[in-house]
């Protein structure tokens, strides 16, 4: 880690992995999950990583988002060298710049949809009014304006995932990571989540990196990376601009 | 700020109830134990705390009120010479053997010979003026109502102490003794009941000062003069503490209290920490998500600690309500229970300490809230 952390130049990719390798040890067995992987991701794009389970796509996501360290190679996010940041600095970086959407919605049972979204904002050092304004806007954006006083137990699976997206979105992150965001949802709800993620990339200029083996997502992504055995097999950009199949979600 | 800790506690109260109950019962047990010990052993200093004397004069080395030796009666003139002293009166302690009218066998009694004058210092706080006045009658005694069965007497009955006849002219309350029965009488009656020819003077002299806050300084000042034979002085607070500590350690009760406090703390902490750990584990994915979003581990720890604090506070509130009820019940049944501010504080500190230790233990399981584990 000898490169200086620079501010991102206009031409610089939002996320960059250079020669990244990662392996896990379980028992006596050492499994190489990522093998000398190099990748650039541009801002304002919805990039999909797909591939069979165990191909290393989730590990790549956690490394690019600063949740895990690499064994060798470098990761640059928004011009910062993630390898040079300690635990605290990484937390701060994630707080300012990243949003996450997970397969399980991971909402606190005790909090209303509005509070779920407001909670992380409280820690960003903004005023209460600003946090509430953003939470409201964000829930409106995912079409939950009328459901924001309800707790997770009173929401459907699709609504819960939209709350989780609103929670990530309210931070106005430059990087949004989603891990199998649709796999627990039926097709209508899955489609709605895909549209929201895509719109976020377009309208907010957010770099959205989504890991999924959901074939419905493939047609909506700006770029599709297929992984196998810790390597990228194919890198395909969709030629035509993607059109929302639905309008604004209800 | 979204009150995550409190909202979770309210919404998932069933999950936290065992911890609240554990803290509550640990606090209650501790409270009642302390109140009982203070009540029982506090009665060993009743002679001091129930009187309005500020300085006590007695035989050097006396370890508790009940084991005094007689001192020279002339010491009184030396004490009175001190300008701070307002009033001095003798107090005679006689160990007696009680023979009642009914079949009670011999009962060991502690005879307290006091000045029956209306402004007498001894037992002024526990003996009503009317009862005190009746003691002026020769061979009249007053006993506590809780000891009537033990002594086998009622009001107006006659009995003997050390072979001398006495009769019960009054029944008081709050005069319980430890290891025997208190019998109050006048100084003259007490002298008659004392068969020990070696006892020439009073067992103690008790003095009231013009300014009670000077008790410690005056007690020190009055010491050291040997002209009237051996004697020493204590402030009443000192002497009371000395008596209670003597009993606590002489009987091993002090060690017992500490031992039980340790056990209660341990059991309470195990239950409370297990409950809190389970609560953290139940929300570990949500905590991990917050951490992924950049909410620091320190902030998550604060949430767990705040939950522990509320568990402790709620447990304490329950314990206080129940404790007050039980104390009132005990009082109504003449069970000696006493609770003072330091004891109550000790219970509060113990219960909150228990909650804090459990919270710290639960905080450790936050280490499992690693956001990378959510990406599997």
Structure, explained:
The complex is a heterodimer of chains A (about 250) and B (about 375). Chain A has about 250 residues and is α/β, with parallel strands linked by helices. Chain A has a single domain, classed as P-loop containing nucleotide triphosphate hydrolases (Rossmann fold, 3-Layer(aba) Sandwich), CATH 3.40.50. Helix content of chain A is about 30%, strand content about 25%. In chain A, α6 links the parallel β7 (about 175-180) and β8 (about 205-210). In chain A, α3 (about 115-120) packs across α4 (about 130-140), α3 runs parallel beside α5 and α5 (about 155-170) packs parallel to α6 (about 185-205). Chain B has about 375 residues and is α+β, with helices and mostly antiparallel strands. In chain B, about 50% of the residues lie in helices and about 15% in strands. In chain B, strands 2-3-7-4-6-5 form a 6-stranded mixed beta barrel. In chain B, a hairpin with a 6-residue loop joins β2 (about 85-100) and β3 (about 105-115). In chain B, α1 (about 5-10) packs across α12 (about 295-330), α2 (about 15-40) crosses α12 and α12 packs antiparallel against α13 (about 340-365). Chain B is elongated and about 95 Å long. Chain B starts with a helix and ends in a 12-residue tail after the last helix.
Which descriptors apply to this entry?
heterodimer, A: 250 residues, alpha/beta, Rossmann fold, six-stranded mixed β-sheet, four-stranded antiparallel β-sheet, 26% strand, globular, B: 376 residues, alpha+beta, 2 domains, six-stranded mixed β-barrel, 49% helix, elongated
**Helical fraction of chain B:** 40-55%
Could you tell me the radius of gyration of chain A in angstroms? 18 Å
Major β-sheet annotation of chain B: 6 strands, mixed, barrel
The CATH C-level name of chain A is Alpha Beta
What low-confidence regions of chain A span 5 or more consecutive residues with pLDDT below 50?
1-9, 242-250
Q: Any guess at the CATH architecture of chain A?
A: 3-Layer(aba) Sandwich
CATH superfamily of chain A: P-loop containing nucleotide triphosphate hydrolases
Biggest pleated-sheet summary of chain A: 6 strands, mixed
Number of helical segments of chain A? 7
Please tell me what the overall shape of chain A is: globular
Low-confidence stretches of chain B: none
End-to-end separation of chain B in angstroms reads 31 Å
Overall structural domain count of chain A:
1
- Tell me the CATH topology of chain A: Rossmann fold
Overall number of strands of chain A: 10
Major β-sheet strand ordering of chain A: 6-7-8-3-9-10
Give the termini separation of chain A: 47 Å
Count of DSSP H/I helices of chain B: 13
Number of domains of chain B: 2
């Amino acid at each position: 880690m000898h490169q200086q952390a620079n501010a991102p130049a206009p031409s610089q990719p939002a996320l960059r992995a250079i020669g990244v390798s990662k392996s896990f040890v379980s028992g006596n067995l050492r499994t190489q999950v990522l093998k000398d992987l190099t990748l650039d991701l541009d801002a304002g794009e919805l990039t999909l990583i797909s591939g069979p389970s165990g191909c290393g796509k989730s590990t790549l996501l956690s490394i690019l988002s600063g949740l895990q360290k690499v064994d060798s190679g470098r990761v640059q996010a928004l011009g910062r060298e993630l390898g040079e940041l300690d635990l605290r600095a990484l937390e701060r970086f994630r707080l300012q710049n990243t949003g996450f959407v997970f397969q399980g919605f991971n909402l606190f049972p005790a909090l209303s949809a509005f509070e779920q979204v407001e909670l992380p904002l409280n820690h960003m050092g903004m005023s209460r009014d600003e946090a509430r304004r953003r939470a409201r806007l964000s829930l409106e954006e995912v079409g939950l304006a009328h459901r924001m006083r309800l707790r997770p137990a009173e929401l459907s699976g699709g609504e819960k995932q939209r709350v989780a997206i609103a929670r990530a979105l309210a931070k106005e992150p430059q990087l949004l990571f989603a891990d199998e965001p649709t796999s627990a949802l039926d097709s209508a709800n899955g489609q709605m989540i895909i549209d929201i993620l895509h719109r976020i990339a377009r309208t907010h200029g957010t770099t959205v990196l989504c890991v999924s083996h959901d074939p419905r997502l493939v047609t909506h992504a700006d770029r599709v990376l297929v992984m196998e055995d810790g390597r990228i097999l194919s890198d395909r950009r969709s030629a035509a601009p993607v059109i929302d199949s639905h309008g604004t979600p209800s | 700020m979204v009150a995550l800790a409190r909202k979770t506690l309210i919404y998932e109260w069933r999950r936290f109830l065992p911890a609240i109950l554990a803290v509550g019962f640990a606090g209650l047990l501790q409270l009642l134990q302390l109140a009982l010990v203070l009540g029982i052993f506090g009665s060993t200093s009743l002679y001091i705390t129930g009187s309005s004397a500020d300085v006590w004069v007695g035989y050097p080395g006396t370890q508790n009120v009940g084991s005094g030796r007689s001192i020279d009666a002339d010491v009184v003139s030396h004490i009175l010479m001190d300008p701070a002293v307002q009033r001095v009166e003798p107090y005679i302690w006689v160990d007696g053997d009680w023979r009642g009218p009914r079949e009670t066998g011999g009962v060991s009694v502690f005879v307290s010979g006091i000045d029956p004058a209306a402004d007498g210092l001894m037992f002024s706080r526990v003996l009503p003026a009317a009862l005190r006045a009746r003691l002026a009658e020769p061979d009249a005694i007053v006993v506590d109502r809780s000891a009537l069965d033990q002594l086998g007497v009622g009001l107006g009955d006659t009995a003997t102490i050390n072979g001398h006849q006495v009769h019960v002219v009054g029944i008081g309350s709050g005069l319980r003794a430890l290891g025997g029965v208190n019998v109050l009488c006048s100084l003259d009656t007490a002298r008659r009941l004392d068969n020990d020819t070696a006892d020439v003077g009073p067992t103690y002299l008790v003095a009231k000062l013009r300014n009670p806050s000077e008790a410690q300084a005056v007690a020190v000042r009055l010491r050291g003069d040997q002209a009237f034979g051996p004697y020493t002085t204590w402030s009443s607070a000192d002497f009371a503490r000395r008596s209670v500590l003597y009993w606590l350690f002489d009987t091993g009760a002090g060690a017992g209290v500490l031992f039980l406090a340790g056990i209660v703390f341990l059991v309470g902490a195990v239950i409370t920490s297990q409950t809190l750990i389970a609560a953290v584990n139940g929300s570990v994915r949500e905590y991990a998500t917050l951490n992924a979003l950049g909410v620091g581990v320190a902030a998550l720890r604060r949430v767990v600690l705040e939950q522990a604090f509320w568990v402790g506070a709620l447990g304490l509130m329950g314990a206080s309500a129940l404790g007050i009820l039980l104390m009132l019940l005990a009082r109504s049944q003449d069970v000696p229970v006493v609770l003072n501010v330091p004891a109550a504080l000790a219970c509060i500190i113990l219960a909150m300490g228990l909650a804090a230790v459990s919270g710290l233990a639960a905080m450790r399981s936050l280490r499992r809230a690693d956001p990378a584990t959510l990406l599997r």
